[in-house]
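name: query_chain
kind: protein
chains: 1
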Amino acid sequence: MEEILIDCESLPWIPIVAGIDYRLLFASAETGRWTVMFRCQPGSSFPRHKHHGAGEYYVVRGRMEYRMGRADAGTYGYEPLGVIHELTTFPEYTELLFTNYGPVAFLGTDDSVLSILDHAEVRRLAQQAAT
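structure:
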């Protein structure tokens, strides 16, 4: 792997779910790690999901609310492998730096996997948006 230096402001915002876009900063097929900047509109949310890799986040601006509580701008959080979040909401405009060390599975009420977000999918969506 080579060194990377990216002007993040030049990257496009890519829609991921209603009201939430991301900028792809890094995705590794070798390790499964992916890093994105999420931009979340007021009232947007991530539905129920399970981390199949540990995750880390830093709230750059705004506020995120989930099972651990309220994460305001300046908050760092760690999410261990296997944790399930019922709902993650953004009551105000929020930007969030997020790194995950594997896939995130979005779940149905019966724990069935509805979709997977991983290094390959964030890269595929970014390449699709570039065309």
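note: The two ends are 25 Å apart (CA to CA).
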